[in-house]
Amino acid sequence: MTGRLVLxxxxxxxxxxxxxxxxxxxxGEDLRSAAVWLxxxxxxxxxxxxxxxxxxxxxxxxxxxxxxxxxxxVALVVLGSLTLVAVPVLGRFGAKxxxxxxxxxxxxxxxxxxxxxxxxxxxVASLVRARRAAGGSRSHA
Amino acid sequence: xxxxxxxxxxxxxxxxxxxxxxxxxxxxIPFPTSPSWGYRLTQGLHVTTxxxxxxxxxxxxxxxxxxxxxxxxxxxxxxxxxxLVTLLERASIAVLVAAAIFxxxxxxxxxxxxxxxSFSFRSTHYALAWVAIGALxxxxxxxxxxxxxxxxxxxxxxxxDRPGATEQGVLSRRGLLRTTWVAAAVxxxxxxxxxxxxxxxxxxxxxxxxxxxxxxxxxxxxEAAGIGEQQVGESYRLEVVGPSGTVRLSREELLAxxxxxxxxxxxxxxxxxxxxxxxxxRVRDLTALAGATGGEDVVVTSLQESGxxxxxxxxxxxxxxxxxxxxxxxxxxxxxxxxxxxxxxxAPNRPGVLQTKWVARLEVQA
Lengths: 141, 366
Prior knowledge:
The structure holds 2 protein chains of 2 kinds.
Chain A: H1 2-25, H2 28-63, H3 66-91, H4 107-140
Helix pairs in contact in A: 3-4
Chain B: H1 2-22, H2 38-64, H3 80-111, H4 121-152, H5 173-191, H6 222-225, H7 229-232, E1 238-242, E2 245-249, H8 251-256, E3 260-267, E4 273-282, H9 283-289, E5 298-302, E6 311-314, H10 316-320, E7 325-330, E8 333-334, E9 344-346, E10 359-364
Parallel strand pairs in B: 1-10
Antiparallel strand pairs in B: 1-2, 3-4, 4-7, 5-6, 5-10, 7-8, 7-9
Pfam families (chain B): Oxidored_molyb
InterPro entries (chain B): Di-haem_cyt_TM, OxRdtase_Mopterin-bd_dom, OxRdtase_Mopterin-bd_sf
Keywords (chain B): Membrane, Transmembrane, Transmembrane helix
């Protein structure tokens, strides 16, 4: 218990140091903008992203046939997080006309290829599972 | 999963501290010049573990999402203590989640040079790193008994988080863990080619393909820095200021001095890196012309009109290193204008923003 208290106190001290760095070095505009982004990130995740995930979850568990559920879930987790990581390059928001070495790949095409690969993988895995399940029930009969 | 997420955050924090220190103008403890690829490694790790942490954090948050709607302990006054503890714990989690999302999102956007905010990235990302790590340590302290049980227990057991579970989910718990590893691995492989040459061809979502003039990408072009032909033409002179006075050298005079070749990486704070074969004059040979005796810091000023890194400090130990060049050429050709023609600083184990391009002046500090 003492160990945990010491660890907790250490964490509070480190966090407070960060807050002090922020408050003492940033000006009003820095702080306002950072606060918007801090709160905005949480809201975006907890409302938009989580809502979207729940909706997809409903689709997967209610609409898809049983053998496709697990493969679709795996594909959605992998592809969903990859898509989020790729937002800055897909949108090319940081692109600069004077610098062709930055954001210099065909990102949308690459992303579409990855989506197609994922769809193929889900279909193949679902068919394999369906056949295995059918074979399993036949051998039991 | 929490363990791996914690590990990623730990590596991000430590490599971030290294990078922040390397960018400070004065080093009470000298920043080492060797190995020359040190900063390339630490900053590559920083961006890679940050990218891997995104799927890990998402899955972690999704699995605990139902807890957001858990009721607070209510009722009699004797429950007040429990209520207080719960509120404090939730506050620490709110800070942790907000800081973690902020760090990963701003870091990711920075790696693609996308800045849709008005705060200073470097100081804010640095301050909130301390907040995130502090909140993480508090979280570990609070959860230590649960962590001990979970790590020692069966991975499939739902005893700790869903004691009332009656139905098997679509994925087993082990299945979800494996899926998350795959998601993290795919995210890393798809982007890490900007810093790992071996992955260049498969990193289809990498910020840079690694191509560029003379085989090296460009972070800030001459046009963006406001450098035109008239500043770097025949009338260009490098000014070297030191204890014995000021020396002015044309590019021809620089080329007439002893030339050296060094294979050194450019490793940008944004995470990309590339190795190049640079040729030029040793910086210490130049400062010696102005009377430097060794060990002095040198202030480097660029021809560019503005920008936070127009003026940088080259610390004494970097000046003294034989590999630190005022480069005049790259890959056997005269330096490209976008790489800093007529000459640029290239030193081992140093953040790219400090490898000043279009150098106008070297000033030896007393």
